[in-house]
Write a structure and sequence with these properties.
single chain; 231 residues; rod-shaped; binds zinc ion
Length: 231
């Protein structure tokens, strides 16, 4: 049985659905074997629609894609947090370097060698500090007590720390109403100074109070102080 292309085109949808008769099926197959034009039409009909095809192909990917996106977001978040911490750390180090941040030494790292009176009446506090990389901070309490607090620099490393260092702190008390005194050695103290302590306030050691008798400084100490002060 030979059918025209027009008839085959009519039959093809039913053929594709498998709803045509066996007779029609045989006729369609016979025609398709010989007619390239109707074969192309048949191929087009039997292929799923492009939209359906893409949706079917993409469907199994959805959960993977979702998970991937989530992972990417988590990674970005973690990266952001890490960068933030790094930034803060760098900032703190820079601030610490800028301020030369230091920590108070404990009393066991400080030896008070002697407290003496220089020939001009100045008070000399001679310390040995078991930490070469140190500075002395002066802190006043509200009741006019001076604390000499040796500090260890946070950014001191290696041999610097273990050597230990001599420290001479020299003060004189200003006569009431005066703001400076000519020719005196050391740092002026206000006339209302109540005491001088060494060490952090909680375990500080009293080294001088007004009216206290001090032993005179040795000539060596006098010379050393003069040299240090550049006289
Ligand atoms: Zn045909």
């Amino acid at each position: 049985m030979t059918l025209s292309c027009v008839v085959i085109e009519d039959l093809l949808p039913a053929y594709c659905d498998g709803t045509c008769t066996a007779e029609s099926r045989a006729a369609v197959e016979e025609h398709l074997a010989d007619c390239p034009r109707c074969r192309r039409f048949y191929t087009a009909l039997s292929r799923p629609l492009p939209l359906e095809a893409s949706r079917e192909a993409a469907a199994p990917l959805h959960p993977v894609e979702k998970q991937w996106n989530k992972k990417k977001r988590v990674d970005l978040f973690r990266g952001g947090i890490a960068m933030l911490f790094l930034g803060v750390a760098v900032f703190l180090v820079l601030v610490a370097l800028q301020l030369n941040v230091s920590l108070p030494l404990s009393q066991e790292d400080i030896v008070i060698n002697q407290v003496t009176e220089l020939s001009d009446g100045s008070i000399n506090v001679d310390l040995w500090v078991d930490d070469a990389a140190h500075s002395i901070s002066y802190q006043w309490s509200e009741d006019h007590v001076l604390y000499l607090i040796p500090q260890r620099s946070i950014f001191a490393f290696g041999d610097d720390i273990s050597e230990g260092r001599q420290s001479n702190e020299t003060f004189y008390v200003l006569p009431k109403g005066e703001t400076e005194a000519e020719g005196k050695l050391g740092i002026p103290l206000p006339s209302d100074v109540k005491a001088i302590y060494v060490g952090p306030e909680k375990d500080a050691v009293l080294v001088w109070q007004p009216g206290q008798e001090l032993p005179p400084a040795s000539p060596e100490v006098e010379q050393r102080i003069q040299a240090e002060k550049g006289f």
